[in-house]
Write a structure and sequence with these properties.
Oligomer: single chain
Number of strands: 16
Helix content: 25-40%
Radius of gyration: 49 Å
Number of helices: 7
Largest sheet: 4 strands, antiparallel
Order of helices and strands: HHEHEEEEEEEEEHEEEEEEHHH
């Protein structure tokens, strides 16, 4: 049998400190001076909430700062990557120009550039052959049987790009809008592509000029053409082998080919202001550019005659022979010969020679100029004194000799 029970109100009154003064002779109630633990618990929870909000604010600020730093670092890495890519593209352009110059030298046995040279793309002059995947089957303009390229043929043409590829770059222009296929560098800004190689001459009316019944064909140099740089240059262009850069160059005739065709390597200057190259120490001479080149990156040129040179940018810091001796400085044997030759003066002996010359002239001349501190002609040797040490000087160091203080011969002999 279940026993009935009553629900009792277990709530109790929170006693506060009584504001009524205690009666005389009575002790104040202890419960009236005691605060409840619930009030203390609520105050502690309020302080914890404030501390939590402060910590959350600090964490939020740190997270925002971390995101900002990460974004800035990402931008810095992107800038560094673009800089390195541009530098490598410039090196590729230089290598391409050197290869074409050497090819023309070998083909014509002419060691000098006889005409202007610009960068060109590989284009099949016979037109694009539909359905053929070959790196030599590249032509954007027309098909081998005539007509223009369709969409599928254009995609196949782009997939065949490998040799001096013409990267499909479309840029917005004022004349054609956003579909201008700018594959050339318009130096004269005429808005038209001027082709390179064999060009059929036409008149102002775009009519072919005939000479004796045949078109007049001439070899001309036109606009430099942009050459694309693939991620992997040994594989044709594709979804996994994209273009990372492109370059164009102009080789001006009359340049010094020895500086272009020489071997060029980068080196870092050591703490002794020297460059190590092929087991040689190349001492950089004094330069008006800066006090020293320690830790600077320079480029060492090695010429066909085994000569060497150090360049910092476009400035030549020094030239050396095959043994690493600076051309501007005398060799060790020459220095020894110069030092052994009595007729040659040392660089630091000029001032001494000038001083000695005046002394030699003074000794050789019978009539010498009297010194400013010399005594008068009638004065004796014992009356001489240094400047400021005369008989009337306030700074004299010793008493002048007088007849009363003059020693006799016996006294001088005893001394």
């Amino acid at each position: 049998m279940k026993l009935p029970f009553t629900i009792c109100d277990s709530r109790f009154t929170i006693w506060k400190k009584s504001s009524v003064p205690a009666a005389a002779g009575r002790r104040p109630c202890a419960a009236g001076n005691r605060q409840s633990s619930i009030v203390n618990r609520k105050s502690e929870e309020g302080i914890a909430l404030v501390i939590t909000l402060i910590l959350l604010s600090v964490t939020l600020v740190m997270a925002i700062a971390f995101l900002a730093i990460s974004r800035r670092e990402a931008g810095s890495v992107s800038t560094s990557t673009d800089t390195v890519t541009a530098r490598l593209a410039a090196d590729a352009a230089l290598a391409n120009a050197q290869a074409q110059i050497i090819a023309s030298v070998l083909a014509t046995t002419n060691p000098y550039i006889s005409s202007l040279l610009v960068s060109t793309n590989f284009i099949n002059a016979y037109g694009f052959v539909s359905g053929t995947a070959n790196p030599t089957n590249v032509n954007y303009d027309y098909l081998s049987g005539g007509g223009t390229l369709g969409q599928n043929q254009f995609v196949q043409n782009i997939a065949n790009l490998l040799y001096l590829p013409r990267a499909p770059v479309f840029v917005p222009t004022n004349s054609l809008g956003s579909n201008d296929f700018r594959f050339y560098l318009d130096l004269n800004r005429n808005g038209q592509f001027e082709p390179n190689g064999s060009v059929t001459n036409v008149d102002n009316g775009n009519n072919i000029i005939n000479v004796n019944g045949s078109p007049m064909v001439d070899n001309q140099v036109g606009d430099p053409e942009w050459v694309g740089v693939l991620e992997r240059p040994d594989v044709p262009h594709g979804p996994n082998n994209k273009f990372v850069a492109r370059y164009a160059f102009v080789a001006v005739p009359g340049l010094d080919l020895t500086e272009i065709l020489c071997v060029q390597e980068d080196r870092v200057v050591g703490n002794d202001n020297c460059v190590s190259f092929l087991n040689r120490k190349l001492q950089i001479p004094e330069s008006p550019l800066r006090a020293h080149f320690v830790k600077a990156t320079v480029k060492v040129h090695q010429y066909p005659d085994a000569g060497l040179a150090i360049f910092h940018g476009r400035r030549c810091l020094g030239r050396y022979d095959s043994r690493g001796v600076s051309i501007g400085e005398p060799r060790a044997a020459d220095r020894e010969k110069k030092s052994a030759d009595p007729s040659r003066r040392q660089p630091r002996a000029v001032l001494g020679a000038v001083k000695d010359a005046s002394r030699r002239e003074a000794v050789a001349s019978p009539k010498t100029r009297p010194s400013l501190t010399a005594p008068s002609h009638g004065a004796g040797a014992r009356g001489r004194s240094a400047p400021g040490n005369g008989p009337d000087s306030l700074t004299r160091k010793c008493q002048p000799e007088t007849p009363l203080l003059r020693r006799t011969k016996q006294e001088r002999a005893a001394i």
